Amino acid sequence: MRIPLLLFFIATFVNANPQQLKQVSQEEAILTNIVFMRTEGLLMTQLIEQKSKNKKVLSAIKRAKRYYTETQPMLLEVIKGKALALDQKQFDYISQEAEKKFQNYDIKNEGHWIKLYQNHIQNCIRSYSLLLQDREWASVTYFSFYALPELINLDQEFIKLNIK
C-alpha cells in the first residue's frame, strides 16, 4: 500500500525538464521544500500505520492520511507549470532516511516515534505560518492558509494521545 501512494505523490510532483531546473525561482524553491516536507510526512504516516497496533494512534494516522489526500489537489494546482528541482534520487534519500528513523519502531517505545512525527508536524506548522506572514506569492500563501488549520488539528490530536 505504501509504494503505490508514494509513487502517486512522486509522479505528480516530478514535472520539470532539465532546462527548467537551472533557473529555479525562490517561489519554486519554497514549493520544492513543501513537497519534501509533505513527502517526509507521508512516509512517516505510512510507517507508523504499518507498525502501530494502538487504535488511537491509527485513528490519528488515518486523519493525517486524509489531510494529505485532501490537500494534494490544491498543491498540484499551485505547482502546475513550476520548475521544481526534484528527482528520484532525492525521493529515495527521503524514503531511506524515514525508514532508518523508524527501523527500530517498537510498541514499547511508540512514544518516541510519535514525538518524531509531532516534531515534523510542528515544523510544517512553523513553515506554513512563516509563509502566511510573508505573503510573497498568492498561491503559496493560499495553500498555506488552506493546509495550516488541519496541521494544527493534527498536532492537537497527537498531543491528546499522550503516549510516553
TrEMBL record:
Residues 1-16 form the signal peptide. Keywords: Signal. This is DUF4142 domain-containing protein. It comes from Sphingobacterium kitahiroshimense.
